[in-house]
């Protein structure tokens, strides 16, 4: 129990700093693995922090938190369209189940920023590595949408 509390306490400053600015902070939904609430905080024109507080349905269904540092590019081998950004990054995930899990994530995705609305839609594939309680590779995927304040 103390380990779970410590992990949540370590993630709180990241979530609070992400919500501290206007117009570069988005909040919305994520559907897939996991399903719940998603946020994204732009740090620069090409970097951001994103995360989710969501429900995982893999194995023991339970609350799952994750946070990622992302880098974005508007072109990928001559695939470039207005409003489309490709991204990749690294992050951490924590699942609070009967046997809690902690691991790393490597999100790979695409975001579409709507030109006339403060919205984005995204699709991502996320290879991962669980470290606690045992080491194993994972693969997750999700779609979602966020509104920017």
UniProtKB/TrEMBL annotation:
Protein origin, superkingdom: Bacteria
Range of residues in the leader sequence: 1-18
Keywords of the record: Signal
Protein name per the record: DUF3996 domain-containing protein
């Amino acid at each position: 129990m103390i380990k779970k509390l410590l992990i949540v306490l370590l993630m709180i400053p990241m979530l609070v700093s992400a919500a501290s600015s206007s117009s570069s902070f988005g909040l919305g939904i994520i559907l897939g693995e996991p399903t719940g609430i998603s946020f994204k905080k732009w740090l620069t024109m090409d970097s951001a922090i994103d995360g989710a507080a969501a429900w995982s349905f893999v194995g023991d269904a339970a609350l799952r938190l994750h946070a990622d540092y992302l880098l974005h590019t508007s072109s990928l081998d001559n695939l470039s369209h207005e409003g489309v950004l490709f991204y990749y990054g690294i992050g951490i995930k924590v699942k609070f189940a009967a046997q809690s899990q902690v691991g790393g994530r490597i999100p790979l995705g695409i975001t579409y920023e709507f030109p006339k609305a403060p919205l984005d839609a995204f699709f991502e594939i996320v290879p991962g590595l669980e470290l606690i309680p045992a080491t194993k590779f994972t693969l997750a995927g999700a779609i979602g949408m966020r509104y920017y304040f």
